[in-house]
Recover the amino acids of this structure.
């Protein structure tokens, strides 16, 4: 029997959360990918660049989390266990690179949940979007995240 | 070409990215990526957990492969050029897999001072199976 999923979560907006980008986190993230680009790792190269500092790699915002909240909120809302989830799709739209020392505000909303039956059985697709704004309220980046739940 | 800089005028539709080969994927890289990204799903760390979940064992974070694809783009065009990157995770990447990231220019367009290049991007394993597939848009500098 497939497990049920709480589709009532569609439309839910999570409380906005601030993220201050730490220099070391950018470097750890780039190094974890094995990406040794000096524009991410070398403060001197960053200082001499058009941005005046190092910048974050394109997928860095995936590491943004609400440090005040527990990490299981979405799964609890959906009523599913972490062992059933897979990452289906991910999209980033970036207006300018994320930089160390900046504080951004992130707002996540559940846009849609739809079900499909694949080769491995019934699945639900949970679509979330996170808007990332700077102190002036301008959108710097947007992430779209599709989580697959094996039902 | 590592840490390159590509100008809009030098890009043609049909051009291919220099392939970026990553791996073989080791557990330590998944552990390191978990720490760096904050994604501590045990399915990427604990083989018994992954087997009990019906996944046949540990596999890599999709975001690790997506990060590799992003690197293929920035190694070619330069850091800070990626305006859009969207992918579907098509197959699991397992320990020992070698991931090769590729891309091809689909279109180019200019509006005012912004010069954009659209690409299809993908990553494949050592058997040639696509593990990631998607599209990217880069903003490139102009020579003029």
């Amino acid at each position: 029997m497939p497990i049920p999923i709480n589709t009532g979560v569609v439309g839910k907006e999570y409380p906005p959360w601030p993220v201050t980008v730490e220099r070391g986190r950018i470097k750890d993230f780039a190094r974890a990918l094995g990406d040794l680009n000096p524009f991410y790792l070398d403060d001197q190269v960053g200082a001499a660049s058009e941005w005046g500092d190092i910048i974050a790699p394109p997928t860095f915002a995936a590491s943004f989390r609400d440090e005040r909240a527990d990490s299981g909120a979405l799964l609890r809302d959906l009523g599913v266990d972490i062992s059933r989830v897979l990452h289906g799709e991910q999209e980033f739209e970036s207006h300018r690179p994320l930089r160390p020392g900046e504080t951004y505000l992130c707002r996540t909303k559940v846009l849609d949940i739809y079900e499909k039956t694949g080769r491995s059985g019934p699945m639900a697709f949970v679509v979330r979007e996170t808007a990332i704004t700077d102190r002036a309220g301008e959108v710097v980046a947007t992430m779209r995240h599709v989580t697959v739940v094996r039902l | 070409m590592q840490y390159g800089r590509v100008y809009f005028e030098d890009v043609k539709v049909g051009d291919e990215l220099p392939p970026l080969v990553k791996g073989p994927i080791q557990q330590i890289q998944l552990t390191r990526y978990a720490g760096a990204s904050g994604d501590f799903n045990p399915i990427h760390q604990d083989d018994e957990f992954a087997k009990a979940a019906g996944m046949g064992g540990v596999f890599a974070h999709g975001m690790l492969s997506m990060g590799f694809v992003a690197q293929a783009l920035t190694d070619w065009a330069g850091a800070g050029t990626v305006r859009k990157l969207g992918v579907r995770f098509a197959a699991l990447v397992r320990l020992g897999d070698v991931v090769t990231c590729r891309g091809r220019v689909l279109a180019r367009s200019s509006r005012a001072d912004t010069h954009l290049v659209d690409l299809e991007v993908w990553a494949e394993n050592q058997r040639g199976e696509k593990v990631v597939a998607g599209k990217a848009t880069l903003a490139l500098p102009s020579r003029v």
Q: What stands out?
A: Chain A has a mean pLDDT of 95.
